[in-house]
Amino acid sequence: MKQSQLFSKTSRNVPKDETSVNAQLLIRAGFVDKLMAGAYSYLPLGYRVLKNIEAIVREEIEKIGGQEILMPALQPKANWETTGRWDTYETLFRFTSHYSASEYALGPTHEEIISPLAGQSILSYQDLPKYVFQIQTKFRDEKRAKSGLLRGREFLMKDLYSFHADESDLDDYYEKVRQAYVRIYDRLGIGESTYFTFASGGTFAKYSHEFQTVTGAGEDAIYICDKCRIAINKEIIEDQATCPTCGSKDLNESVATEVGNIFKLKTKYSAPFKLVYKDKNGGEKEVIMGCYGIGISRLMGVIAEMFNDDKGLIWPEAVAPFKAHLLALGDTSGDDFYRDLQAAGVQVLYDDRAVGAGEKFVDADLIGLPWRIVVSPKLGDQVEIKNRRDTEVRIVSKEEALKILKGE
Fold this sequence. Notes:
By secondary structure, the chain is α+β, with helices and mostly antiparallel strands.
């Protein structure tokens, strides 16, 4: 991609109505644009980050048997009345059709849709277990949308649902999902700061579980057991003042953001929709369910909060929109090396703009791609290469630069 053709532009101005680091940097670097409180447009650079996060999540969920579907965001009132949540779900967007008396909701979650849908294909014990997921935009009428991408009214989410014949099978799959989530956060570069967290189970079970990433922009207080690398949400600390794993009382309080959650729904949503199956003896039993969410767009905000400095963003390679930022300075053209990088399979953003070197360096740091490469008259046939995380600048041949970028 040539930067001169990029749809978005960088900005030196900090958005006055944004206090969170992630929103300020993502807007200034041209990754997102704020339409209104809680709703953002994802520009080319930002959309590439979203797709990279999405690809990692999809790959790990498919590894544990997840089949991808896509359900409607527009949902009928009747389904929500069936579960009793039409009048009790606080952030539900509700509206009436202009052309009839029909009432609808914009989906904040999809238990009311997936449960009756599953009933069309789950008839017998031989149809179980089943695992389906989607990656889709959700809508929640948050009283106060804040913290940039961390709490919006419109956001991208992966939701996985599992269907089982008994609780033992649900328990086994629940652990598989937990392990898949750990792999996801490790691949995204936030694994060391993300904790499996005990939280309130509500009406589902004694506990539900969250994955909380320690960041100063977080809204939750968690208590961490460093020995076991698990945490307890403050909401239940009075009931569980010791580590659930080792019993230690040596817990450290931190501020964190929820980046995922897993629930044992059991029969909470299968019962209202009469989601049942025939067992081996022909008896009728209710399907046992689990649900597992990950906020895709929230993860983008969390990563931006965690990986930055006073100059701009510092993207982990796994999610960066491009691996390298090629800067052509002075009268030197970078066209040939740009083509060489592309031929070698290196995803590169090429700053071919007719602007000064200072502006190019400032923009490169703000955008925060993993590698910066400079071609200029002073370097001749060599190039300057620098990792965004480091201060070291190296002068190497173009061949050596290609090897570095390819990890050879």
